[in-house]
Amino acid sequence: MLCTFDEIKNKEIINIKTGSKMGYADDIEFDTCTAKICRLVIFGKAKLFGLLGRAEDTEICWSDIEIIGEDTILVSCEMPIRTKKAGGALKNLLK
């Protein structure tokens, strides 16, 4: 099955170990040397409409993906990897 990123980002990501909904893929990271996808990124939720930044992003390694189905992506990971926090406009104004 071939998928475009537009199709991938419309599939809900579910962790099969916990049964929890993780969200939808907002971005991908890939290795430019090998042209292989490394991970999917789920952006953190916005705080106060983005004025106070947002929660940490979640990264899911490509190797943790078990099945890409019609409507969902099933992943098997212990704890999602949290990455950098994105700064908000209010945080930048206070500097």
Describe this structure in words.
There is one protein chain. This protein has 95 residues and is mostly beta strands. The protein has a single domain, classed as Roll (SH3 type barrels), CATH 2.30.30. The strands form two sheets. A four-stranded mixed beta sheet has the order 2-1-7-6, with no helix packed on it. It has a four-stranded antiparallel beta sheet with strand order 3-4-5-8, with no helix packed on it. A hairpin with a 4-residue loop joins β3 and β4. The relative contact order is 0.23.
Give a brief description:
With 95 residues, this protein is mostly beta strands. The chain contains 2 helices and 8 strands. The longest helix is centred in the last third of the chain and has 5 residues, at 89-93.
Multimeric state = single chain
Average predicted confidence as pLDDT: 83
- By CATH, the superfamily comes out as PRC-barrel domain
Corresponding CATH architecture:
Roll
The total beta strand count reads 8
Query: What is the helix tally?
Result: 2
Question: What's the SSE blueprint?
Answer:
Blueprint: H1 5-8, E1 12-15, E2 21-24, E3 27-31, E4 36-42, E5 58-61, E6 65-68, E7 72-75, E8 81-82, H2 89-93
Can you give keywords for this protein?
4-stranded mixed sheet; 95 residues; globular; 4-stranded antiparallel sheet; SH3 type barrels; mainly beta
